Amino acid sequence: MGIIVGIDLGTTNSAVACLRRGKVQIVQIDGKNTVPSVVALRNDEIIVGQQAKSRLLIDPKNSVASSKREIGKDVHYNLGGKIFTPEDVAVNILKTIKMKASEALGEEVEEAVVTVPAYFTSEQRQITKSAAERAGLKVLRLMPEPTAAALDYGIDQNKNQTLMVYDLGGGTFDISIMQVKGNNFEILAVDGDSRLGGDDFDQVICNLLYKQINKDLNISITLEKERKYISAVTKVKEAAEKAKIDLSDMDEVEVILPNLIDDYCLEKTITRNEFNELSKPLIDRTIEKMNMAMKSINYTEDDIDRVILVGGSTKMPIIRESVKNRIKEPYMAPNVDEVVARGAALMATSLATPDYQKKSGIDLLKKIVVKEKTVFTYGIDLLDRYNKLVFTPIIKKGSMLPALDGVIGATSRPYQERVLLNVFRGDNPVPNENEYLGELVLDINKPMQQEIPILALFEIDENMIIRFRSVQLPISQEYAELIGSNDIKRLKAYLDMGRLKATEVIIDAKENGR
Known about the structure:
Nucleotidyltransferase, domain 5, Substrate Binding Domain Of DNAk, Chain A, domain 1, 3 domains
């Protein structure tokens, strides 16, 4: 029997944890509790982690960092002539975690709960799951990062409470409100921004440093193509990250980069107040997401028992102060960089067999139950009675997972040979104002003059991965009754039994753009 772990696949750093002797423990990779989520090419060899991060300074063109922000987008990286997608980068990170965790534990890591941002789309989740499987892992479940953090915090609290998890990582921001009752965690509201994180706060300092360099040298350093300028930009980014971290403990920092470009030395003093002021628009975006999450369930700050800060970026004092001013004094775990992996390990063990749980030294009298909700609305375009295409929601935002629903329509003209259904994500009644996900073409068997009924069926599993099917319904008394009563569950059962033959759409995030 192999080892089951929880993996936090982070934008900046990743972590892995497991249960042993009844306690959650972080599995060290290369002697550290976290591993940089960086991949690089060195002498035609792929390297991952701290070594790869070091390569960023000397060979940025053949190094990739923060690729998690690009998952689901048509982005490619050229490393020494080899083309990598964000999924490929994730595969290499997860392979390294699996291999080195197995070495550290003395047993093969085989299964995992892998965490994802709560605001990840279904395609981004599917890509993450695929990356883990390509890395040789059996994925027990994909789990939202804030939920995993709440699990680590709340599993031993023995009281009912409403938690808000403020999760500001390296590249993404999530806000989750959940009801905790014993081992039951029910997600009430989710919001977030998949392109807001610590990298953006680093960029605030980078911009200050770029401005100084451009003024001193009369150049635009980020537009220069020579290797020395590209290398200098990488050094500035590293210095900016360090300055941000130092400003959590100091009132001001002095950035000194000797011989940054030829014999040019950069010297710049940055105060915490200056950084806080320039970071305010970013922080305001997180507060607005908090407000939106509470508004969606008609909650106020008085309904929140505790706010939990998660993610390395929450170490900035301005974050704690802003959350305190809006809601209340937040709780900050001593291990904010590890709490997500720890919670994922708890969930992974909960999903394991009783024998494995016993081996891990834990006796879960009550299984951990996590009830999640969809964070987006999904639907298709259909003709209304005025023969106008409108967006028809099928599974609405906030539906409990797993979710199942459908809509019954019909052909729009006599002897129609095929039906085209476009799949969208969003809430706008105008289809093209929503995010286009893909299309399904249903060929009509034996076209006829009369309308032919068609079922469009959406299923979203507990990992928030979509399955969309469409099927031509027979014209018979039995099906007329099912159509009349809109019995979607019975029709779905007939599909699963093989009594109906469906066409299924494969929604590929890389093909979403129109």
